[in-house]
Structure formats: C-alpha cells, structure tokens
Amino acid sequence: MNRFAALSDSTRLRIVELLGGGERTAGAIGEHFPVSAPAISQHLRTLREAGLVQVRVDGQRRIYSLDPEGFAEMESWFARMRDFWKSGLDTLERALSEGDKK
Predict the structure, then answer these.
(1) Residue 66's beta-bridge partner residues?
(2) Whether residue 49 is found in the same domain as residue 1
(3) Within 13 Å and on the Cβ side, how many CA atoms surround 64?
(4) Does residue 19 sit in the same domain as residue 2?
(5) How many structural domains compose the chain?
(6) Could you tell me which residue, 18 or 90, shows the higher pLDDT?
(7) Which string of DSSP letters, residue by residue, matches 4-69?
(8) In this structure, are 48 and 84 located in the same domain?
(9) pLDDT tens digits, residue range 52-72?
(10) What pLDDT digit, counting tens, does each position of 10-51 carry?
(11) Do 60 and 12 fall into the same domain?
(12) Which domain holds residue 75?
C-alpha cells in the first residue's frame, strides 16, 4: 500500500503518532482505541507493508516502532514537491510583478 494511503486512515495515523513517542507492543497501542485486537493487528500490518512501521520480536511479544527509512522516503518526496512548487510560485510571482509594471 502507498504510504500516504496508509496514513489516510485516522486510526493508522494515530498509531503512527503514538509510535512517534517510542516503541510499543500491539496491546499497548490497542489500549488507545475502541476496536478489537485483531483490528489493531490489521492496521499494524498495513503500516508495516507500507514501510512506515517495523516490528521486532522480544520473546513472545512483538514490539512496534516507526521505520525511519519509510519516513525518509516520504521526506524526500516532500522535498521534491517543495522544490517544484517553489520554482512554480517564483515564476508566478515574477509574471505578476511584470504585469503590475505594465
């Protein structure tokens, strides 16, 4: 799933925000939501498949954390978009300034 699509769901977005405060077990994440444990597991799976969350095994527990690589790729995309819009807006500003002078 596309990273942005994965974050379009409010539950998954909130899970990412929670993990921004540090790693957590699925149970600890689930305590913040009025949904079943299997539903939380499905959301975590979607986030893992999108490259936003990683999991490590600690005995019988699964510990979830943010995946820095996934967010680095998103930041790279944002940087490209900022460059695109900055150059386009600079061009628009010049055109508008020239129009004011005429």
Answers:
(1) 53
(2) yes
(3) 26
(4) yes
(5) 2
(6) 18
(7) HHHHTSHHHHHHHHHHTT--EEHHHHHTTSSS-HHHHHHHHHHHHHTTSEEEEEETTEEEEEE-HH
(8) no
(9) 999 999 999 999 999 999 878
(10) 999 999 999 999 999 999 999 999 999 999 999 999 999 999
(11) yes
(12) 68-102
